Amino acid sequence: MTMFLKIVSGLFALLFLFMGAGFVLDPTGNAASVGLNPLTEHGLNTLRGDLGGLFLASTTLIGLGLFLRKGELLIAVAVLMLCIAVGRVIGFAIDGNPAQQTLVAFGFEIVIAGVMIATSRRLVASA
After folding, report:
1. In this predicted model, what pLDDT tens digit does every residue of 88-116 receive, in sequence order?
2. In the chain, what are the domain boundaries?
3. How many angstroms separate the first and last alpha carbons of the chain?
């Protein structure tokens, strides 16, 4: 089970790597995929820095957590994902009916947080 969780965590890190690189290298193209339309250079810079940075930092934390066997680094990613999910719940309540893509993203954030917590626990237990 531990190896399975490590593999799944590594796949999430790889996904985050591609998403982060996409936002850094092509913010306009990736903005449309998440329902955004940057109007100025400031918007493009925010996509590169905030979204690209979030995904690349998550990749780094997962990679270091797995490599160094430091579960707390995976917990940091879980906290990020849960904070994003809470923001989405607030958006659902205030903004109304979410798009299908938003619900899918919300589900993935919950699953990713759960996998990070489970993997962290396994790393600590096997240490």
Report:
1. 999 999 998 888 989 999 999 999 999 99
2. 2-126
3. 15
